[in-house]
Write a structure and sequence with these properties.
Number of strands: 11
Order of helices and strands: HHHHHEEHHEEEEEEEEE
Radius of gyration: 28 Å
Low-confidence stretches: 117-160, 199-215
Largest sheet: 5 strands, antiparallel
Mean pLDDT: 75
């Protein structure tokens, strides 16, 4: 039986090459995945995901693997940086595809509802357009009358050639109509509540509400991607790798050089959290993550023999609200710039 599983077909070529290189390093070292886990400090489950292309390994894990296998960490981290960009691009394409699917589904539902609604008897475009006499669905999923804005659509009763009455809709269409009607009603109720809330305020208090940033609502457990185990305040104090907020769901928001060390703010929009990471450091150096817009207790981490460390997570409203600071054993201190 081969040692490695086939990498996912949809994997970006840059990420595929990087995962293949990691496999070669492990094979060359003669170590098992369990041994790699013991020597790098990252769990066996995490390494299985990294080596099978299911998650992009964090930079700390890559530096640790380079030390364990006797590889130049500079070359390996360069490949990692290219893979991280490729991974982010793939995630963006995936998000855009999913949004396009949701928009298409919404248009189909609204179009089906509109076809059975009162607008079904409206006159269509004038002669010569090559279309029928019925209404035409617009690109946004709504309905348009005649092409010329100067000629308003006539009421259905005045139509000289009313269309034949539609056939009785089946159960599937009736359920769709009921669902869309309920959805529109719910949206109207929500919009009314928001409007009444805005009208109820006044003066300086209203301005304060508008100006004060707030965190996005935390998604429920059913809304989180597979492998992600927490969101928002539930993540505070937890390990980002163990809770699934790292890898493909995280990005470096800000970076600062403190002495010989590099300090980063890592941010996960999926989980609504940030944490600090320090690399190229010395044992005993500490790193801390704090929020500039709350009273939450900062989270800290201490560098061990691996020369890098990261803190537990801290719930923040955005990446701009997080600040990472490092204190080196040499006495040097420094922080990232919050919001930049």
């Amino acid at each position: 039986m081969p040692r490695w599983k086939a990498l996912p077909e949809e994997l970006d070529p840059q990420v595929r090459e990087f995962a293949t290189q990691l496999r070669r390093l492990v094979d060359k070292s003669g170590l098992s995945i369990a041994a790699v886990s013991d020597r790098t400090g990252y769990s066996k489950t995490s390494w299985e995901r990294y080596l099978n292309g299911r998650l992009l390994a964090p930079k700390g894990a890559i530096v640790a693997l380079a030390e364990v296998t006797g590889t130049n960490p500079l070359h390996l981290t360069t490949m990692w940086e290219l893979s991280e960009r490729a991974w982010s691009r793939s995630e963006m394409r995936h998000d855009m595809t999913m949004e396009a699917i949701r928009i298409t589904q919404a248009r189909d539902a609204l179009g089906e509802f509109g076809g059975d609604g009162p607008g079904a008897s409206r006159p269509g475009p004038g002669p010569g357009t090559g279309t029928g006499t019925g209404p035409r669905p617009a690109a946004s999923g709504g309905w348009h009358g005649p092409e010329s804005p100067a000629t308003p659509p006539r009421p259905p009763a005045a139509s000289p050639t009313p269309p034949a009455p539609p056939a009785a809709p089946g159960r599937g269409r009736r359920r769709t109509v009921i669902f869309v009607t309920a959805l529109v009603g719910a949206l109207l109720v929500i919009a009314g509540a928001v409007l009444l809330t805005d009208l109820g305020g006044g003066g300086d208090d209203t301005a304060k509400v508008v100006e004060s940033p707030s965190a996005k609502p935390s998604p429920t457990a059913s809304e989180l991607p597979a492998g992600v185990k927490c969101a928002g305040d539930d993540c505070t104090g937890e390990d980002p790798e163990l809770m699934g907020c790292g890898g493909e769901f995280a990005e470096t928001a800000t970076t600062a050089k403190v002495g010989t060390a590099v300090v980063e703010v890592r941010y996960s929009e999926t989980c609504g959290v940030a944490w600090a990471r320090i690399t190229e450091a010395a044992p005993g150096d500490t790193v801390e993550i704090s929020s500039t817009q709350g009273d939450d207790q900062p989270q800290t981490g201490t560098v061990n023999a691996d020369k890098d460390a990261y803190t537990p997570m801290l719930a923040v409203p955005s990446a701009a609200a997080a600040e990472a600071c490092a204190t080196l054993t040499t006495g040097v201190e420094g922080c990232t710039t919050a919001g930049g």
